[in-house]
Amino acid sequence: MIFEIVRQVTAHKMNIEEQKITLKSAFKNDLKVDSLDIFEIILELEERFSVEIPTEDLEDIQTVRDLVEYLEKRKEKESH
């Protein structure tokens, strides 16, 4: 579920087809996401998942899988 939402938001913000986005997709190299784009994607996801993603955490998020796993951990922490 989280992957589908990340993929949907990323595809919408980057104006690309959802099918082109996989867990292995690297934001910068594969999807051509720049720092402003990632900021907009993160803002949308923070709103959708009701979480806050600190800017310093973004350095560790290089791929779609990184972001999905990060959101899963955040949601898990918040549910406890």
From TrEMBL:
It is found in: Cytoplasm. NCBIfam families: acyl_carrier, PRK00982.1-2, PRK00982.1-4. One of its GO terms (molecular function) is acyl binding. PANTHER family: ACYL CARRIER PROTEIN, CARRIER DOMAIN-CONTAINING PROTEIN. Carrier of the growing fatty acid chain in fatty acid biosynthesis. 4'-phosphopantetheine is transferred from CoA to a specific serine of apo-ACP by acpS. 4'-phosphopantetheine is transferred from CoA to a specific serine of apo-ACP by AcpS. This modification is essential for activity because fatty acids are bound in thioester linkage to the sulfhydryl of the prosthetic group. It comes from the Bacteria. One of its GO terms (biological process) is lipid A biosynthetic process. Residues 1-75 form the Carrier domain. The modification O-(pantetheine 4'-phosphoryl)serine is found at residue 35. This is Acyl carrier protein. Belongs to the acyl carrier protein (ACP) family. The keyword Lipid metabolism applies. One of its GO terms (cellular component) is membrane. It holds the Pfam family PP-binding. Its main location: cytoplasm. The keyword Lipid biosynthesis applies. Keywords: Cytoplasm, Fatty acid biosynthesis, Fatty acid metabolism, Lipid biosynthesis, Lipid metabolism, Phosphopantetheine, Phosphoprotein. Pathway: Lipid metabolism; fatty acid biosynthesis.
